[in-house]
Design a protein that fits this description.
67% of the residues lie in helices and 3% in strands. It is globular, with a radius of gyration of 22 Å. The chain contains 18 helices and 2 strands. The protein starts with a helix and ends in a 20-residue tail after the last helix. Helix 4 (62-79) runs antiparallel to helix 15 (329-349), helix 6 (111-137) runs antiparallel to helix 17 (382-398) and helix 9 (215-231) runs antiparallel to helix 10. A hairpin with a 2-residue loop joins strand 1 and strand 2. A two-stranded antiparallel ribbon has the order 1-2. The chain is mainly α and 424 residues long.
């Protein structure tokens, strides 16, 4: 089945028109998923209606069962929230992540589709990077209050690249994901002009990531590149070392200022982040099973805030602690198990096929992105969540591509490149 072109177009718009584009994109993704389900109902043989609910759940693949458990945990956290109406939109975002994953896994039928998804994310990230670098070059800084609680920002007072993101750390998280997409495209591209173009895009992303001054983003990108070099080609270690040396030579003050702030005796060190982690742990200990409800951090966190903390944190600066505090520990466990299971199955099913390099790149990116979210909460931002679950759904879709194309040796035989109507 060919998905509607509007789903991809609105998805790309959501990166620029956050949060309004995300709402439109979620609606279009839901429509595309409904169309796919309707088409499958017409093609599938009739199912006996005598099956019990328990039997139907037992027949579900493990990934679907983990998604149901994750959404059940999110629903329970919303019902148990002290502010259920405030938690409802954040619960809807969790459902949107599941829809995004299911849609990506369902509509990516051929390797050409997966390559097109990677290329779309890669190109969007490059476009945002070029915009951010332009703002950085002219030292622009502006903010607009477009609605109560909704503010758009271009540039920052301390001259960190944020493109159209509200905060540079959010852009850094997206760039880590785009880095993995670029590595997968580079590995799958034939030697020559195609690889040169992808390499130029990777250099653009690396420069933008450096100028975000996000230490969590730097570390996540380093882990991604190190893992990919270890798994695929160790020459990437040399490339990463050369890039780091060049960055240190061209931007010594920026790098030194950000790294020296990590010293305990430096008053500029972000001690409030450690205090935020301690407060988040106290929140988790108070309600470990259901959490305090999605989106309630701003209301609940001041109760557990340490007296010595003078900065009100918008999140826990650790996505794992934040999700546990708001959704409960079981929900985090189910979601983590889902990610690990999906990547493990994808790696096993695509072994010794032309898709192996792309799946390895997505796996290394997930590792780097997890490291980034250990020191920040990029996954909680809408565009980051959409990109992450799109890539995860792409990895799940890659599992069956060797089988659909008639064998492991012919994984790419169904299409060496995107067809004219791949996403028509």
């Amino acid at each position: 089945m060919r998905p509607p072109r509007s789903s991809l177009q609105l998805l790309l718009m959501s990166f620029w028109l956050m949060p309004f584009g995300v709402i439109a994109s979620a609606g279009c993704l839901l429509l595309a998923l409904w169309r796919e389900a309707a088409a499958r109902r017409h093609q599938a043989p009739p199912v006996a209606r005598s099956r019990s609910w328990h039997e139907c759940c037992r027949r579900l693949p493990p990934a679907e069962r983990l998604w149901l458990l994750t959404l059940a945990g999110a629903s329970l956290a919303t019902l148990a929230s002290p502010h259920p109406l405030q938690s409802l939109p954040h619960w809807a975002l969790a459902v949107g992540c599941a829809i995004t994953f299911a849609l990506a896994r369902g509509i990516l039928q051929r390797p050409a589709h997966l390559q097109l998804l990677l290329r779309a994310l890669f190109q969007v990230a490059i476009g945002m990077s070029l915009f951010g670098l332009t703002v950085y070059a002219f030292d622009l800084h502006a903010r607009w209050q477009v609605a109560p609680g909704v503010e758009w920002a271009i540039g920052t007072p301390d001259r960190r690249v944020n493109a159209v993101m509200y905060h540079p750390n959010q852009l850094a998280g997206l760039l880590v994901l785009a880095l993995g997409a670029g590595l997968g495209l580079f590995h799958g591209a034939p030697p020559g002009r195609s690889r040169v173009i992808v390499l130029a895009g990777l250099l653009c992303l690396a420069l933008t990531l450096l100028l975000t001054a996000s230490r969590a983003g730097w570390l996540g990108a380093a882990v991604t590149l190190a893992a990919f070099g270890f798994s695929v080609d160790r020459r990437w270690w040399l490339a990463g070392g050369l890039a780091a040396a060049t960055a240190a030579a061209c931007f010594p003050q920026l790098i030194w200022a950000r790294l020296s702030a990590l010293a305990w005796n430096d008053p500029a060190f972000d001690h409030f982040r450690l205090m935020g982690w301690e407060a988040a742990l106290k929140m988790i200990q108070a309600r470990p099973w259901t959490g305090w409800g999605p989106g309630t951090w701003g209301e609940v966190y001041p109760t557990f805030r340490l007296p010595a903390e003078t900065v009100h944190l918008p999140h826990a600066h650790n996505a794992f602690l934040h999700v546990s505090a708001e959704f409960g520990v079981p929900t985090l466990v189910f979601l983590s198990a889902l990610v690990l299971l999906t990547l493990r199955q994808a790696l096993l099913e695509t072994r010794d096929t032309p898709l192996q390099g792309i799946v390895v790149a997505l796996t290394c990116t997930t590792l780097g992105y997890a490291v980034t979210n250990c020191f920040d909460a990029a996954l909680l931002e809408g565009r980051n969540a959409i990109a992450f679950f799109l890539l995860l759904g792409g990895a799940a879709a890659a599992r069956r591509m060797p089988l659909l194309s008639g064998g492991r040796e012919g994984a790419l035989a169904a299409g060496e490149g995107p067809s004219e109507g791949a996403f028509a």
